[in-house]
Here is the input.
Amino acid sequence: MKSACLTILCIFGCLSGRDVTYAQARQDPGRSIGTITTQGDLIVMTLNEGVFGKANMFDLTRRTLRFTPDGAGYRAENLALQWDSEFGTEMSGPQLALHNFSFPYSGKSWDSLSVGITGSISFGAVQSGPGPGGIGAGRGGGLTIDRFAQLQEASRTLINTVPGICVFFKPRMSGTRYVKELPDRVLITWNITEPFGGIQDFTWTPTVNRFQTVLRKDGTIEMSYDQLAAKDAIVGLYPTVTTGAETALATLSSEATSNVAPHLDLKNVKVSVVDGLFLKVTFETRGPLLPEGDSGLAGITYHVFFDGHKPSPTRAENAHADVTWTIRGFGPTGRGGGGGRGGGSSRYIASGPGVSPNVKVDGNTISLQGTLPPAFKAGDQIAIYADVATPGTPPSIVDQVSPRPVTLSGIRSAEVDLSAVKRQDGPFPIIYESFHYLSLPNPRDLTCTVIKALGDKFDLLAYYSDFRVDNQEAGTPSTGPLGGGPSGGAVTGIGATQRSLESYCSAGRFQWQFIQPVYAGSNQAQQYPPDGITDSNNHNIGFYTRQLALRTADGKIPPYDYAMSQIGHEMGHRWAAFVSAKVNGETIPLGPTHWARGLQAPVPFPYQRPTEASAMGGGVWQDNFDGTYTQLDDDYYVPATGWSYLDLYLMGLATPAEVPDFFILRNLVSAGTDRNGHPIFKADRIKVTINDVIAAEGPRMPDVDHSQKQFNTGIVVIVEHGNKPSKELIERANGIRERWIDYWSTTTGHRSSMTATLK
Here is the structure.
């Protein structure tokens, strides 16, 4: 990972190797989105009205939805609860074979279906994981979406992927499913809980979520909701609609541009409607597009903008787009002018509200499509314009198409208010509603709001709120420009480079931040778990309560332990874990993003236990000198842990000579456990030295004698427009602030200090 404009998606599960690192699509400069005041050493951000959109909470409890086939669509109605209390037999797995009839759906008759534990049903071939765009049938059955997808976005991108039914589709749920098959119908009932007890959870104990669906022989579908603790989910019908019927809406022409390569010189931009559901945009250039696989496409960006303001703008510089759709070129390692780690060959990826990530390249044309942006409705007249940009800081716009008014005719949103829908409103070929919390912020907007108001005096920024955002996990990814601190100089030799400081409104100091606020009501923002909490999962703090309490004077675990796990891990990404090592001519990644599970990464200055592995991953491995290795501490960051020798070197807090030789284990194969329950593995060991890292990355500069030792974190509490911070939010943010200062000092061996002040 050689670029600094990174978004590190490492809300946990991440150190198990399932996380992804994404480049941000475009580093537009952040803007101020609220007002800033202070309360003690806390920064209070009061948002401008509506900047995170509106929440839409589930409102169908004790109701039944009935969907009745009508031609190629469905009539829908909302009825009083019709509940069958005889659930039938508990399902042992997701696959359900129908014995009494075939169920008609999505133009076919189905003898089997896949019932997801997370409240959905899918039809067709079973997939082992997410399909194109991160959507498909998962191992747990039914539908699955990308781990970090917002429900309001995922609800649109589910369209025309896998034929499916979302009864109450909410990722990360667990529990039981029941089935009862009758001659004319099959009843499926879910009794499931939201995730609980973990660092990324919102509750310490199980919750009750009980709902069911009836699939009738005639194709009628009923969904009934008895008791729902969860308030966000996707509900609706997703048959595939793929006639491909395309209706042109407008062609926006552009004059030839001198001194611009033909594949960047726009001839026109065509806007059309596909199947009455999708808006399709096709860029036509004066010469052939660079084909996928061509490394030259990295960083090239094609934008189309949608502006619903009145009067409609006639010039791009006067426009204020409500929605932007983007096609961006990414290199074989994810290099697209914004960083990231990908793999495979160079390719184009589309992004934007409701956009399918898949892009079609055909000669002189490149196209993308998505559902109608939620800011607009059928029949609206909006201004549409476009541009092409090449990589740079900032990107350089090389061609533009001026705004032109276009009427959005022949297209209809599939999202409806299911609490108010009536039979006469249909039929709908696809019908759904997304229930969700507030939209995720642009992290650069958060940072710029703070820095513009208080000045460029923060190295790190952490955000907390008394509202939830549209994320299924309680924590936050992290990102930042990797600024140089008070000196403003770049840090090199750590596998990531500084860039896009201006996008974060920094003159050179600001380095790293939370992407989104952590909800004050989540597990990780609470001082302690509930009294008496225990857990059998060694990735949850309840597993360690007795062990950790024995080490404290008050008989309690350290306060805000989950919060320290999160902030320590995320802020650690400012330096780690991006480096490789060159061993005997072979370049070996030690991550990427998090230290590999098999990396020997013991902590010299533990936070709370005698033996700890790095907060950034890896493990503490005991060599048994028989080809096996005992894992004394694993790569998960609960309870909170400190930094490894390698981390401290990358942070500029240890000399190369202080980093002992270490190793990385490959080809791990389980070989049982020792008498203390520690896992044992067979593995191939490769010795690594700090000089091997320096051979791959160059020396860490500034070196330990000149590196930054004093850091300042801004702790920001965010409230919605018109609100004031709650007592709970202030108390928890202050508690986290105090512990963070202590955590930093302890885990750096007092070689560095952390403040969290406004000075």
Summary: Residues 63-240 form one domain. The first strand starts at residue 6 and ends at 9. Helices lie at 151-157, 443-454, 545-549, 561-572, 645-650, 690-697, 727-747.
